[in-house]
Amino acid sequence: MYKVFLVDDEPFILEGLSALVDWEQYGLEVVGHASNGEEAMRIATNLDVDIFITDIFMPRMSGLELIKRLKEKNDAQKFIILSGYNEFEYVKEGMKLGIENYLLKPVNVEELKQTLHSTVNKMQSEAHRKVVTDNLDIIRGNILLRWVSRTIDPKELLERAKVLNIKLSQPYYVVSVIRFSDPNRSSMEADQLAEVHALCRYHLSGIVHVYEFGDLDGDLILIFGCESQDVEAVSFVTNLVRKVLNHVLEDARMSAFATIGSYESTFMEVTESYRNAKNLQEYCSEVSANEIIDYNVMNAGWEQQQTGISLQLEALSRHIESKNKEEAFAYMDQCFQKLQGSKGAKPSDIQHLAVEFMFQIKHAVKNKQFDSKKIFSHLFKIRTLEQLKDHLRDSIEAVIDYLDGERKDDYSPVIKRVLKAIEEQYAKELSLKTLSQELNMNVIYLGQLFLHELSATFSDYVNRYRIEKAKQLLYQTTLKANDIAGKVGYTDPTYFYRKFKLMVGVSPMEYRQREAMQRLDQ
């Protein structure tokens, strides 16, 4: 039922209105009344009213002022005016405010009933249109998500895009990922995220070839269709993302961090741009709020465009993971020897190079308990290659020292035994239940203890450990992926493939090929 609220400073009018109409017949229910606009504002605030029937002239707050204030809060509410004055100016003002009717006192019952009937029909039509629109928005968001995650066939995407007015004929596409955070909360709730997304949609409305939706992580995703990837197009994308960040900060009082992915020349390669932008979100906890990191600037920055040198930095992460300072330092020195002879490096170029180096160091530290802010604290103050080299060397040393000591000092005796069991038995069937029985502990308590000390569930940690072992076998041996799956504890190769791609971003074979190319480049 729709809810009706009556406002009039004459008690007999309120009583008469309540008795004049069979409200239920129209699907209506009178939920309250007030003698003036101020009282109505106070009482009706928590009643979720659909229709207000109000007088114009009342003490404290007039009916017209009441309508103005309520409209600011909820534009969907309907208003019917009752008045003893047939003044054209009042009628005109009421019409400007979008009232349903202007009824003169004494009230004509049939006219009131007809007005209520038409108002209910109008609300039902609006509700239906909203359902259709909401459903289309849900469908559109789902198709856009399937598009960026490449879980939709190109033919189906083309068919759905026509219906949903998604243009797939642009020469270039680029994806931006915007992650929000509330400084007053550790995490954001779904309704809070929905409000922020709605705010962003409002500020993006009317801009062609920009498609927005929320992904499964709660990030706002923007897909831009561009005519080119020249300076003007890149500037347009960056400025629009900056506009969104500014509105979120000003209107919602929230922080946001944005990343921009690669420019792709076919619509089915949008997934690559999305993946690059999502990967850059790794930096969100390390840089200042309301920053934008652009993959294209990082990837096509000084080390590639101005020097022509392509550094394969993933090897640095491997040396750190193996806790070999000598190899890590030697590799770092090789990189800097290549860079040393280059001229004309701008501070921004060096910063981008610094971020890439530091990302590889952070990637080597799987344990979230490590305070990575220590190694990122001076990152954006670095201006010279010499400063970068010194900072990088100190950071490598700090991280390897941490990795050397983490299993010795940071964990309780029970968790040390669990970790030792994982190291020794990862290739076999492993379960928390079995280990809890061996340790004579409650399985739920053990799981909670593991999560508390490692910031990861037992199954997530084991999967991560197995995938790391699989990566080592892929670049150190010629074993087939199916055989490697069995050697690291996966009895189902399909499940292994799925887990590997989810955690590494590429298939096992693609990873092996990439590692082989990197070794050749070195």
Automatic annotation (TrEMBL):
Cell compartments where the protein resides: Cytoplasm
Record-level GO cellular component terms: cytoplasm
One GO BP annotation of this record: phosphorelay signal transduction system
MF terms in GO: DNA-binding transcription factor activity; sequence-specific DNA binding
Domain Response regulatory: 3-120
PANTHER family the record matches: HISTIDINE KINASE-RELATED, TRANSCRIPTIONAL REGULATORY PROTEIN HPTR
Keywords, sorted A to Z: Cytoplasm, DNA-binding, Phosphoprotein, Transcription, Transcription regulation, Two-component regulatory system
Domain of life: Bacteria
Predominant subcellular localization, coarse grouping: cytoplasm
Cross-referenced CDD domains: REC_YesN-like
SMART domains according to UniProt: HTH_ARAC (SM00342), REC (SM00448)
Residues with the 4-aspartylphosphate modification: D55
Record domain HTH araC/xylS-type: where: 416-514
Protein name (record): Response regulator transcription factor
Pfam families: GGDEF_2, HTH_18, Response_reg
Upper lineage: Bacteria, Bacillati, Bacillota, Bacilli, Bacillales
